Amino acid sequence: MLAMDVVDTLRHEDALVEKELSQDMRDEALKKRLRQIYESQGLTVTDRIRDEGIKALKESRFAYTPPEPSFATFMAKLWIRRRVVGPALAILVAVIVLFIGWQVWRADEAARVAEQIQIEITETLPKALTVAAEAARAAATDPDAIAQIDGW
């Protein structure tokens, strides 16, 4: 087992060395290709600038990496889609305001009806009964009927 580990380690190191050597050859080929491109355009670029460009390419300096999802990116995406989201949001807010207003109106209407019923029970009906009893007493000629009216 130990021998196999040593062999695997050496094989891995050889692969790593080979990869690094091939990377150097790729860098040299890229430098040569860049030199040809700039010379064909009539531009003179120093080796230092080409080396910095290749280094920046390796660092992925020019590669786009999307931002991590966050509240700020969510809000930015909403802002980008504001022509679609804005009217939909306005409609949603209007529906919510109308619904709340309707609920308040219904609650006020129910309170008014309850108040009217309370007034009718406590004031209107007793007055009407008193007026009816007085009218019945005035119209009654039988003493038993008058006694029943006074018993109410």
Summary keywords:
152 residues; mainly alpha; rod-shaped
Helix-strand makeup class: mainly alpha
Low-confidence stretches: none
Sheet with the most strands, sense and barrel status: none
What's the helix-strand series? HHHHH
Average pLDDT confidence is: 82
N-C termini distance: 114 Å
Report on the structure:
By secondary structure, the chain is an all-alpha fold. Helices cover 84% and strands 0% of the residues. The protein is built from five helices and no strands. Helix 1 (2-40) crosses helix 2 (47-58) and helix 4 (82-139) runs antiparallel to helix 5 (143-151). It starts with a helix and ends with a helix.
Write the layout of secondary structure elements.
Blueprint: H1 2-40, H2 47-58, H3 71-80, H4 82-139, H5 143-151
Helix pairs in contact: 1-2, 4-5
Question: Can I get a quick summary?
Answer:
The protein is mainly alpha-helical and about 150 residues long. It has helices at about 1-40, 45-60, 70-80, 80-140, 145-150.
